[in-house]
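Folding problem:
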Amino acid sequence: MSDEAAVCTAAFFRIRGKDVVTPKEFTMTVSLDLKWMPVKEAGALMDLLLERKILTRNNGYLRPTTDLSDLQVPIAYRPSEDFRQEITARLKKPAARSKGVKPKSDGNDLFPILVQQAVAAGLAKGAFIGECNGVRKKLGINISAAALLVLRDRGINVTALCQQVYDSLTRKSA
């Protein structure tokens, strides 16, 4: 097991000086402390190491599955460009939705339509989504229902969408 993934793992744990870390500690250390790659790539690296069974996750902690102390780790190790490209390629893989897997309908399938309505009315997409999440949390309601409230409060006519959201939510509970 002397591939670069194992060497990378050995280098990480030697630098950290411990044999167990949290997933957040792993990604933040790889990204911010070691400056090996951005946080998203560090997450993809963690997923790769878990998939290859070089790391194991147990009770919310990551640890190597085998003793990596015998591996030769170069001084001032940094992941090679080829290895980084392999990690980056994992980020570009299509999501499960594009493979024909349909998510369970819970009213959220209307949310993208509601976001489009907001953007068409001149609202900033990110601000609208943030406001919807705030209303959803505050009232304890579905995100689509929250979006309807936000749009209505902004003076946008949502009459045509109310019945669709209602139907999708009642289907869920039926």
Summary: DSSP finds eight helices and two strands in the chain.
